[in-house]
């Protein structure tokens, strides 16, 4: 059953170790129990080609990947994701929760790799034909806390995660500046808050969003 009339598109963003997946899962469960149809997905990945691109760009051992190539791989994965997964789900009236979207490229490749925020933004607007989330939940994480969290289980860091703290600090600042530019489209929360408190605040905001009829399609052309 689709309680919502038009699809709603929500992105979770933040640095590595921010707890996005945990919060996306909590929100999905809360919405599901209220009768909404929810699609949870992630980037890079979400499609067959996207999962292949994910291994290519994240695994160590694929040789050198320069910054432009890296940005194009993420954008290619996203193009497939937007057209094959996100837009169809929105047309069916579902709530789409994605773990990362365009802001991750703007922050990691634009700021982290110094390719420029605007260049990476326009590449991705082109790749997705301007598909923007109705709401972005930004979990703001201190890079050192993020690193402690992701290495706590002895998990090996991927190519991006293993970059120096300065790289992750540039990313954090870029995410915050994106949110500051469009406060009405963002919910920014400190990632160190208890999981239940974060889940409660996120649900409250989404509940408000769902009370207002969403535009028929996720906002097109609202980039920048
Ligand atoms: P992932 O395992 O999904 O990290 P997390 O669980 O923290 O979301 O790995 C994704 C990595 O790829 C992460 O370090 C961020 C990076 N990334 C980019 O650099 N650009 C992008 O556009 C996306 C989507 C991810």
Short description:
By secondary structure, this protein is of the alpha/beta class.
In terms of topology, how is this protein built?
Layout: E1 8-14, H1 20-33, E2 38-42, H2 48-58, H3 67-91, E3 95-99, H4 102-112, H5 117-127, E4 135-140, H6 143-151, H7 165-181, E5 186-190, H8 195-211
Parallel strand pairs: 1-3, 1-4, 2-3, 4-5
Helix pairs in contact: 1-8, 2-3, 3-4, 3-5, 4-5, 4-7
Bound molecules: thymidine-5'-diphosphate.
Thymidine-5'-diphosphate binds near residues 20, 44, 104 and 160.
List keywords for this structure.
disordered C terminus; Rossmann fold; 51% helix; five-stranded parallel β-sheet; alpha/beta; 224 residues; 8 helices; binds thymidine-5'-diphosphate
Question: Can you tell me about this structure?
Answer:
The protein has 224 residues and is an alpha/beta fold. The chain has helices at 20-33, 48-58, 67-91, 102-112, 117-127, 143-151, 165-181, 195-211, and strands at 8-14, 38-42, 95-99, 135-140, 186-190. A 5-stranded parallel beta sheet has the order 2-3-1-4-5, with helices on both faces. Helix 4 packs antiparallel against helix 5 (117-127). The longest helix is centred in the middle third of the chain and has 25 residues, at 67-91. It starts with 7 loop residues before the first strand and ends in a 13-residue tail after the last helix. The protein binds thymidine-5'-diphosphate. Residues 16, 20-21, 43-44, 58, 74, 99-100, 104-105, 108-109, 158, 160-161 line the site of thymidine-5'-diphosphate (TYD).
């Amino acid at each position: 059953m689709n309680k919502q009339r038009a699809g709603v598109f929500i992105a979770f963003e933040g640095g590595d170790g921010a707890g996005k997946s945990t919060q996306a899962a909590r929100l999905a469960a809360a919405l599901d129990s209220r009768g909404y149809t929810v699609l949870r997905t992630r980037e890079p990945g979400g499609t067959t080609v996207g999962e292949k691109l994910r291994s290519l760009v994240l695994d160590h051992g694929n040789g050198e990947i320069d910054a432009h190539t890296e940005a194009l791989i993420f954008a290619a994965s996203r193009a497939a994701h937007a057209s094959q997964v996100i837009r169809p789900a929105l047309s069916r009236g579902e709530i789409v929760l994605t773990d990362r979207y365009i802001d991750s490229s703007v922050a990691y490749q634009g700021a982290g790799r110094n390719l420029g925020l605007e260049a990476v933004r326009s590449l991705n607007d082109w790749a997705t034909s301007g598909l923007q989330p109705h709401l972005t939940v930004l979990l703001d994480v201190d890079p050192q806390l993020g690193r402690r969290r992701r290495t706590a289980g002895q998990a090996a860091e991927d190519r991006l995660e293993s970059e120096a703290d300065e790289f992750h600090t540039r990313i954090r600042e870029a995410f915050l500046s994106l949110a500051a530019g469009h406060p009405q489209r963002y919910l920014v929360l400190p990632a160190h808050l208890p999981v239940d408190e974060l889940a409660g605040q996120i649900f409250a905001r989404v509940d408000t969003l769902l009370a207002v009829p969403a535009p028929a399609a996720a906002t097109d052309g609202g980039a920048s």
